[in-house]
Amino acid sequence: MRASPPQLPSPFRGLSVKLLTALMVVILAVEIAVYLPSLANYRASWLDDRLRVGVVAARVLDAVPDVMALPRELTDRLLRSAGADAIVYRREGQSQLIELADAPTPREAVTADMRMRDPITLIGGALDTLFSGGDRTLRIVGEGELQESLVEVLMPERALYLELVTYSRNILLLSLLIAAITALVLYVFINVLVIQPARRLTENMLAFRQEPENGTLIMVPSSRRDEIGVAQRELAAMETDLYTMLRQRRHLADLGLAVAKIIHDLRNTLTSAQMLSDQVATLDDPKVQRLAPRLVNTLDKAISFAQSVLDYGRESATPPSPSRVALKGLIDDAGFDAGLAGHPDIVFTNEVSADIALNVDAVQMTRVLVNLLKNARQALEQRTLEGREPEIRVNFDQGAEGVVLGIEDNGPGLMPRARDNLFVAFEGSARSGGTGLGLAIARELTEGHGGRLRLADRKTGTRFEIVLPSAVRRDEPNR
């Protein structure tokens, strides 16, 4: 059952909403950073205004002789103009107090010393007033006009609290309005330049993934020269390459199916011809006896080629299933399958230690070794070595690049023509008349293990090396 195609996120869960929310949060954070000093300055200005009234009162007290008393009507007018309950004037160790006739009972007092104007103190005082509820008595302290004189104004904190609440509410509404307008403008700008092009890219990828063989879905890039334009052009190029590859793959698959059917029928025909040739070979005619071996050899080659093509076509892309495998036993089994066990003319030497184990797929790695060993055996069988005994050796080494398993022979080596397309199916072959499928399959299986199959440079003989990144484990000897 085919999975349902992926869908783009809804407008309320997409990138645009996240961007708009992020912009508003950032703008509000900036507004808060500006609001705190602004609130502190507003409170300081308000307190300074009330303190000026106290300074005026202190000036009046200085102008009046000590033996005289200020009229109650004048003092009440001064206090009410400042909204204060009392004003204290301190100079030269003496204090003078004027207060309302009907002054309320003093409550918990909080001091606002206007001689301390550092930002931390001002901001802390503003926040303290804003969150206090305004039920305390505010004691405002400041310097008078004369040297070493102080003026204190005592008043309810409620008026200042209400002023700060109103100011904060206005700033909040204004900040929200500015944040919304700014975020909306930035959102529209970024949406046009980034979000919508990115959404079109996403829509195109989703649609092309569902129908990769539909050429009309290939991205049409714009003329932009920024990152979005580069992404559009690269996506269009990738989709074009993928579209071309898929069409070629379909053609090759159809062609391969047709070839497989032809080879299958050809193999059956060749098998029948081989059976007839075996019967012909039993005749006593000298010409038949001379030509029959050639005919049988030719038919064997044709059948072997047909079988190799069929095997390559049936080759599956199953991922390897690594397990702990004793390497020496794996090589011995591969040598037996390659026809080297008990060979009358070729010496087969397995130099790998019995305590070495690798994490590989035993079936796939055996097939790699069989193909390499069989090629080496066939190369030695086709050539006569002067003064040397044909030999195939398998050895093992471990270095910085990983595990290196070498399969080498002392034959005449490969011709330069065979080296050019050594691992290309149907083109590269290590021997005359071969298909090159064995080396192609061996390379694919090795790369499936994350390794490499390479031909080593040698002056004499041939050496193939299987390089694997697998960690080597040494088995404990039996006691």
List keywords for this structure.
3 domains; alpha+beta; five-stranded mixed β-sheet; Heat Shock Protein 90; 13 strands; 479 residues
Descriptive overview:
The relative contact order is 0.06. Strand 11 and strand 12 (462-468) form a beta hairpin. The model has no long low-confidence stretch (mean pLDDT 78). The chain folds into three domains: 15-180, no CATH class; 227-313; 323-474, Heat Shock Protein 90, CATH 3.30.565. The protein is α+β, with helices and mostly antiparallel strands. The chain is 53% helix and 16% strand. The chain is elongated, with a radius of gyration of 48 Å.
Radius of gyration: 48 Å
What is the helix content?
40-55%
Q: Total number of helical segments?
A: 10
Count of DSSP strands:
13
Largest sheet: 5 strands, mixed
Q: pLDDT below 50 for ≥5 consecutive residues: which ranges?
A: none
> In angstroms, what separates the terminal alpha carbons?
55 Å
Q: What portion of residues belong to β-strands? A: 15-25%
Order of helices and strands: HHEEEHEEHHHEHEEHEEHHEEE
Tally of structural domains: 3
The general outline is elongated
Mean pLDDT: 78
Sheet with most strands: strand arrangement? 2-1-5-4-3
Global structural class: alpha+beta
